[in-house]
Design a protein that fits this description.
222 residues; alpha+beta; Pnp Oxidase, Chain A; 9-stranded antiparallel β-sheet; 9 strands; globular; binds flavin mononucleotide
Length: 222
């Protein structure tokens, strides 16, 4: 670290935050009863606002030893089973989830000054759903997933490209090929919290909690 720490702190504090006067209004009184509906409304707002990768979400997991890891994933679906994502069953995140299904996801849409936080449990949606997700991927993405070995140390970029080229040839020769490791998962939340910055430099937090299949909601102190 060569940066002057005082300069760094000053620089960080001076970085722009939200364009407060551009933020869309949000009235918690008008929020739908199901947090999935509000999430989808905010996602659509993010798409309309031109947010890059609006469907990217952060997923935090903890393994059996309590070691926490977070990473970004693409949201693949949302239904009564929860928020779906897809990955390899041998990846560190999938291994952690097999040990401990408790997990959290967040979305952050800076242009809207909005965040959504989910906490709940993750389930593997089974081989047919994972295979359907795999088949829906473009050939290049199927080839990348077929390579596998996600997060293992890599000796050289060339080693990866050789493996990728071999996988792409397999995908092109057999369009029905499915990587056996590929899985779809869903996080079924027990808590969903919506956070929005407001034009008056404040914020609103609305938290939903699930009791079996019924949601209750209330404001939370900022
Ligand atoms: C925008 C974005 C989207 C991503 N989408 C996925 C995804 O859908 N599935 C996936 O396995 N990795 C995805 N990744 C890569 C992950 O963030 C992560 O690097 C990888 O899954 C390995 O994670 P793990 O070692 O914790 O298992 C994405 C990364 C970014 C930045």
């Amino acid at each position: 670290m060569s940066a002057d720490p005082t300069e760094l702190r000053t620089w960080l504090r001076g970085l722009p935050s939200f364009e407060r006067d551009q933020l869309p209004p949000f009235d918690p009184e008008d929020a739908p009863a199901d947090p999935a509906d509000l999430f989808l409304a905010w996602l659509r707002d993010a798409v309309e606002a031109g947010s890059p990768a609006p469907h990217a979400m952060n997923l935090a997991t903890a393994d059996a030893a309590g070691v926490v890891t977070a990473r970004t994933l693409i949201l693949k679906d949302l239904d009564e089973r929860g928020w779906h994502f897809a990955t390899g069953s041998h990846s560190p995140k999938a291994v952690a989830l097999a040990q401990n299904p408790n997990a959290a996801m967040t979305s952050f849409w800076p242009a809207l000054g909005r965040q959504v936080r989910l906490a709940g449990t993750v389930s593997d949606l089974g081989e047919p759903t994972g295979a359907a997700d795999f088949r829906a991927r473009p050939p290049g993405s199927r080839a990348a997933a077929l390579v596998g070995r996600q997060s293992e140390p890599l000796d050289s970029r060339q080693e990866y490209w050789d493996a990728y080229a071999a996988s792409l040839a397999r995908v092109e020769a057999n369009p029905d090929l499915v990587a056996p490791e590929w899985r779809a998962y869903a996080l079924r939340p027990h808590t969903v919290e919506f956070w929005t910055a407001t034009p008056d430099a404040g914020q609103i937090r609305l938290r939903f909690r699930r009791d079996t299949d019924t949601w209750t909601r209330g404001l939370v102190w900022p």
